[in-house]
Design a protein that fits this description.
Helix content is 42%, strand content 16%. It contains 13 helices and 13 strands. Helix 3 links the parallel strand 4 and strand 5. It starts with a strand and ends with a helix.
Length: 385
């Protein structure tokens, strides 16, 4: 089977996901070609064929002019679609696996529909089932989502919750594998010393983009008067109307706990993540109720065997966390629940079933589901011909 994976992000959770998934698919004997931006290969050593031919959909440098930024993004998306279509046709791929994106789909999805009519099967990992982040007018957003879905044979999701997709598109549950991060390059003592964390203090870490739905403000309120608790917020600010880091810094100062907070306002590399996680006592994943996606951050905490304080709007995530005791589940968007969960962990701790979770949610099982789904759709098409 020839499979082309379309990944136009060079870094972050989706890029890590694409790499680990492609590696597992190759181990099953699938001929994988992954199309990506050049910087995707920084620090990665793929066992699959990686072709750095795409533009990065989220480059680190944009023009400061809004109109120019929009043109840059649009040009990159449309160019990437053209490149992917050409590579798929020239390689004679049997199937294409994408990471779902609807942006400007009415302008590029026709290329994929033409390939689909020629026999290529299209699948996508739907990381965020609720497509409520609109770019442009509401009618354009709805149309874009519909067009992006209707070029697909099936979507893979990481939730058992209902998913709003067209009836003609199959929905297949897929386990979210655990990302493989490097070993730390610093000792716990070195990391804590660099952050000026006192010996014996409890270190809580929130890492990744600073977004409103991570409820960092509620965490600050929950720990404001708890002694010996230190909060580390590591990650760059997220655009798109999210509150800036200064909002959280001002809140900590107002509540009198600024001296117990540390701010790392920049992109956090995998090496930085390794060091921070190894030095942390508890990972903070207290997402808002409106957040129903699967979080790569949960896999990071499992990778480093760190329990978490966690919430979200996903019933599936809640079930998994409780089943394997991966952390303390708290009520979303509730300061009192966050505080109570933290105090419960401080008093009683938790003994996670790391091995059980890794066995059930590994990349090997992820790859098996992908392969079987593609084969099933190919067989169904052949039977209908």
């Amino acid at each position: 089977m020839k499979l082309t994976i379309w990944c136009e992000l060079a870094a972050g959770g989706i890029a890590d996901y694409a790499h680990d998934q492609a590696t597992a698919l190759v181990e099953r004997g699938i001929d994988v070609e992954l199309l990506c931006p050049p910087s995707y290969l920084d620090g990665r050593k793929p066992t699959y064929v990686a072709k750095p031919v795409l533009y990065d959909a989220r480059p680190r440098r944009f023009s400061r002019w809004k109109v120019v930024r929009a043109v840059q993004i649009a040009t990159g998306l449309l160019t990437n679609a053209r490149i992917v279509a050409r590579h798929v046709a020239e390689r004679r791929s049997d199937a294409v696996l994408t990471h779902f994106s609807e942006y400007l789909a009415p302008l590029w999805a026709w290329r994929m529909r033409r390939l689909r009519r020629a026999g290529v099967r299209f699948f996508s990992v739907l990381h965020d089932p609720v497509r409520d982040y609109a770019v442009g007018p509401a009618w354009w957003h709805r149309w874009s989502v519909d067009v992006a879905f209707n070029m697909l044979d099936a979507v893979f999701v990481h939730t058992f919750d209902p998913v709003p997709v067209p009836a003609a598109v199959d929905v297949v549950w897929l386990p979210y594998g655990i990302h493989h991060f490097p070993d730390p390059t610093q000792t716990t003592a070195e990391v804590r010393r660099a952050l000026d964390i006192p010996d014996g203090a409890v270190m809580l870490t929130s890492f990744g983009y600073v977004r409103d739905n991570k409820n960092i403000d509620l965490v600050i309120r929950a720990i404001a008067d708890l002694p010996n608790i230190y909060l580390i917020v590591a990650g760059s600010e997220q655009a798109g109307g999210n509150r800036p880091l200064s909002f959280y810094q001002d809140l900590a100062a107002e509540l009198g706990c600024a001296d117990h907070c540390r701010w790392i306002n920049r992109f956090v590399s995998v090496e930085d993540t390794a060091n921070l996680m190894a030095a942390s006592d508890l990972s903070l994943l207290v997402y808002a109720r409106r957040f129903v996606s699967s979080s790569a951050a949960l896999g990071v905490t499992v990778n480093y065997r760190k329990p978490c304080l966690i919430s979200s709007g996903s019933a599936t995530t809640e079930t998994v966390v409780k089943q394997y005791r991966l952390g303390i589940w708290v009520e979303p968007d509730d300061v009192a629940s966050i505080r109570a969960g933290l105090c419960d962990w401080l008093a009683n701790g938790i003994v996670p079933d790391w091995d059980g979770y890794l066995e059930d949610y590994g990349w090997a099982r992820n790859a098996r589901v992908i392969e079987q789904t593609i084969l099933d759709h190919a067989a169904a098409r052949a039977a209908a011909a």
